[in-house]
Amino acid sequence: MPGRRPSLLTALSVGALSVTVLAGCNASSSGGGGGSAASGEGGPSLILITPEPVGVNPFLQLAVDGVNKAADDAGGKARVFESQDPTNIQQQMDAAVADKPDVLAVVGFEFADAVAAAAAAQPDQQFLFVDACTAETFDNVTCAVFREHEGVYLAGVEAGLLSTSGQIGAVVALDTPQIRRFSDPFGAGAQSVKPDITFTPLYVGGDSPFNDPARAKEQALSLVAKGADYVMAAAAAGNLGVFDAAKSGSFAAFGVDVNQCPGAEGHVVDNVIKEVDVVTADSIGNILDGKGGGVASYGLKEKGVTLTGIEDDVDSSKCLIADHTDVIDQVASVRDKIVDGEVTVDDPAEG
């Protein structure tokens, strides 16, 4: 299943965790948000490679949490190799493969070529590819991908039910089929409950499409000028610019991947969540049990994708949707129809 677009937040890197030098490359032994790596005597060895420093990137922190949990569950040891940027990925891959871990996990589309080459050269090495997959199938590569477009559709349903202007939009990093999984379904979801609503996506583009808050803010303000009162933020670090624009009080935004409401309290309606930690831990466990290989797709049915608003802890989420229980009930009903197959969400990445 090639071409799977990863988390929008994997492009966000702010700060860095403490690292130790290992095999000439940067490797961190600390888990997401601090604490020591999971470790055990005689258990399996696990390595996670990230596409950039984990820092305070919540998406990457979830991946670290997942590999640490897998190590704890198996009584093994987990280490994290943090690439400094995409140009450092091959170096990290070479160092990790040389260590011959029981499972070598990576997260993000940036690893597609490196994983394919390593899997072909090292057929006895087991790989876990989270949030993307290789173009070619390998018996020793397990891909765990997300149907995030299903969650984005639900966010669009919320926007459609809440909008009073009849105008909504999205600030999107790039105009590609994979990235449009975070925008097109938003418009489709809104129009499913309010057919006359107008949806306008704008694209950040430029040299830093995933790390340009200033440009993303300009795009959000352009949408406001067109009358949009709800905006999907799908621009990685650019989301911060969208949230900053929302402080004007003229519109509210939606976040992605993790709960972004606390960081912009009063301005974020809801978030399209990917349960990266759960999926990573479960996938590693399956590989260790001899059930590796192939592609596992996680959407609403598998509880790999959800919205903050339809989870039990919504009241403490600091998301605006918590004040709209009637909307939550309607969105939960649509969620159930998607799970049951009564509603199908088109995937822009599938052409």
Describe the structure.
The protein is of the alpha/beta class and 351 residues long. Helices cover 32% and strands 20% of the residues. It contains 9 helices and 14 strands. The chain has helices at 58-74, 89-99, 112-121, 148-162, 184-193, 213-225, 239-246, 276-288, 325-340, and strands spanning 20-22, 25-27, 45-50, 77-82, 103-107, 127-130, 141-146, 167-172, 198-203, 230-234, 252-257, 268-274, 294-298, 305-307. The strands form 3 sheets. Strands 4-3-5-6-7-13 form a 6-stranded parallel β-sheet, sandwiched between helices. Strand 8, helix 5 and strand 9 (198-203) form a beta-alpha-beta unit.
Percent in strands: 15-25%
Strand order across the biggest sheet?
A: 4-3-5-6-7-13
Number of strands: 14
Mean of residue pLDDT values: 89
Low-confidence stretches: 1-6, 10-38
Secondary-structure topology with pairs:
Elements: E1 20-22, E2 25-27, E3 45-50, H1 58-74, E4 77-82, H2 89-99, E5 103-107, H3 112-121, E6 127-130, E7 141-146, H4 148-162, E8 167-172, H5 184-193, E9 198-203, H6 213-225, E10 230-234, H7 239-246, E11 252-257, E12 268-274, H8 276-288, E13 294-298, E14 305-307, H9 325-340
Helix pairs in contact: 1-8, 4-5, 4-9, 6-7
Structural features:
about 350 residues, alpha/beta, six-stranded mixed beta sheet, 9 helices, about 20% strand, disordered N terminus
Structure, briefly:
The protein is α/β, with parallel strands linked by helices and 351 residues long.
